[in-house]
Design brief:
The protein has about 400 residues and is an alpha/beta fold. Helix content is about 25%, strand content about 15%.
């Protein structure tokens, strides 16, 4: 193989280093590849193609997370098993009848390789899929090679309630805060070494680290092209606000799915933008600007299926990032919810179990319903956040 073609300012990700520096990890092996459309080398070449064309290993099976291998199935839609038309290998969906690879799915696999772009939030299901695949690898004693990638919203801060055990769900699989500030390699190492996999199983895990990535880097500072990891994550700006604005999904408010600006258009048919903006003006919310907005959610093939308030005019706010380094996304989400709740206490419904799973602790909903100030709500999770930070600090690779 030729050297990876990349600009001087582009970091080398785990996929680059696997093929050009660490291919002994897969040499002569039958590979099960957990990936999707984001699994690419830094020069844009799909890892599937590179592995299939190489004489280093044999591509044996593919495994896809939510949205499928191609990344074009709308949020929440079941993805079926299939067969890759180009290479003829079996494609197993891990977002269908099962979320965890079975022994049958892993039959014949000698090494599992994982290359998926995360966005830095607990409820992004890709990391749940990785955790369950890692667990299966541990149970079957199959080597698991994780190709590390940047956390697109940097690796400096972490925030939000640590998920309590009673609220464990596929969008809240591990007891981590909403915004974790880790790479997938760091997350996997933490889960594996802390005994967080089922029955404290430990997988034979190898993380192929990045070269050149620093924790202070935003994704657009890495030299890598932004490939929307999921249909409703169109831009890096979306990812910046997502850890807080995804909480809107668990309410009677539209989070903007079915528009070109999901998680940045927030509203409902019963809302008056001026009332919302007035409430927001009473909070200190750095790094973002708010403006009145009207939008009508519509079904977008491959992106939004049956969005909330489909075909109905919604009124509310548009938020834009003015200083991303100043944004505290979870606090932002709590402020927006507080503003709606204060302006429309009866209409703003926090849908108990759904909202609690997203937040990670039912006390957040209870405090919002009581009208607690956003700063008070966020202060309540500080002790558990500090405890997580102590554990987290042991697994920083960069």
């Amino acid at each position: 193989m030729n050297a990876v073609q990349q600009s001087q300012d582009t970091i080398r990700i785990g996929a680059d280093r696997l093929l050009y520096e660490s291919n002994e990890l897969i040499e002569g092996k039958r590979i099960g590849l957990l990936t999707n459309h984001t699994g690419r080398l830094s020069n844009g070449s799909p890892l599937i193609d590179m592995l299939a064309a190489s004489d280093i290993c044999r591509l044996h099976a593919l495994y896809g997370p939510e949205h499928g291998i191609a990344g074009d199935t709308p949020d929440g839609e079941v993805v079926e098993h299939g067969r890759d038309p180009k290479y003829g290998v079996q494609v197993y969906s891990l977002y269908g009848k099962t979320h965890k690879p079975t022994a049958e799915m892993l039959d014949g696999v000698e090494v599992i390789v994982c290359d998926i772009q995360d966005v830095g939030a607990r409820f992004y299901t890709f990391i749940s899929t990785i955790a369950l695949a890692l667990e299966a690898a541990g149970e079957m004693k199959i080597p698991f090679v994780l190709l590390d990638r940047p956390n697109p919203i940097r690796g400096l801060s972490f925030d939000g309630p640590v998920r309590v055990e009673s609220l464990k769900a596929f969008v809240a699989w591990m007891p981590i805060p909403i915004s974790h500030g880790l790479t997938i390699g760091e997350l996997a190492t933490l889960w594996n070494n802390e005994g967080w996999l089922a029955n404290s199983v430990k997988a034979p895990l190898t993380v192929v680290e990045m070269d050149g990535w620093e924790r202070s880097m935003w994704y657009d500072e890495t030299g890598l092209a932004w490939i929307p990891p999921s249909p409703n994550m169109p831009t890096l700006e979306t990812a910046v606000v997502y850890p807080g604005m995804c909480l809107i999904e668990g309410t009677s408010i539209s989070e903007g799915r079915g528009t070109a600006s999901p998680f940045q258009l927030i509203g409902a048919p019963w809302a008056d933008p001026e009332r919302i903006l007035k409430e927001l003006s009473s909070f200190q919310i750095p790094g973002v600007a708010f403006a009145p907005a009207e939008f009508t959610p519509t079904e977008i093939p491959g992106t939004a299926s049956e969005p909330k308030y489909e075909g109905t005019l919604c009124r509310g706010i548009r938020l834009s990032v003015t200083d991303r380094s100043a944004v505290s996304p979870v606090h932002l989400g709590i402020c927006v919810l507080s503003a709606f709740k204060r302006a429309y206490p009866a209409e703003t419904v926090l849908r108990n179990r759904r909202f609690d799973i997203l937040s990670g602790n039912k006390s957040v909903r209870q405090q919002l319903d009581r009208g607690s100030h956003p700063d008070e709500i966020c202060a309540a999770w500080e002790p558990e956040l500090r405890a997580f930070g102590e554990v987290r600090s042991n697994y920083l690779l960069y």
